[in-house]
Write a structure and sequence with these properties.
Order of helices and strands: HHHHHHH
Distance between the termini: 39 Å
Shape: globular
Structural class: mainly alpha
Length: about 120
């Protein structure tokens, strides 16, 4: 994490995101690394890498954790950004079913509906 933060502070976004992504490959439950990489990936337009990273996070995140609906929601957002809107909508609905007051799920769903 320290090397990634240093790279990010130097505005070396590709290096920072790559380091955080490497952490999530080795530690897929490291939601901090996932969240740290998420926004910078958006900044540089690496939507496929966001989707892949979040796919790992969803797979390894225990469903009983309170953050699980959040992880589903941002995964749905990444699917929508990769033109996988049907799957994104389905994942949004799963997230909302678990946590009805979930702003990220509704945000992702708005993206899906906007593109229809």
């Amino acid at each position: 994490h320290i090397d990634a933060v240093i790279a990010y502070r130097k505005r070396d976004i590709p290096k920072a995101t790559s380091l955080w992504d490497d952490i999530t490959v080795h530690y897929p439950q490291d939601l901090h690394a996932m969240r740290c990489a998420f926004r910078p990936y958006i900044e540089i337009g690496e939507f496929a890498r966001i989707r892949d990273m979040l796919s790992r996070a969803v797979h390894y995140c225990p469903k009983q954790l309170s953050v699980y609906p959040y992880v589903l929601s941002i995964y749905a957002f990444s699917l929508e950004e990769n033109n996988q809107r049907d799957l994104a909508e389905s994942i949004c609905r799963q997230s909302i079913a678990i946590q009805p007051k979930n702003p990220w799920a509704f945000h992702a769903m708005c993206h899906v509906m906007e593109e229809e």
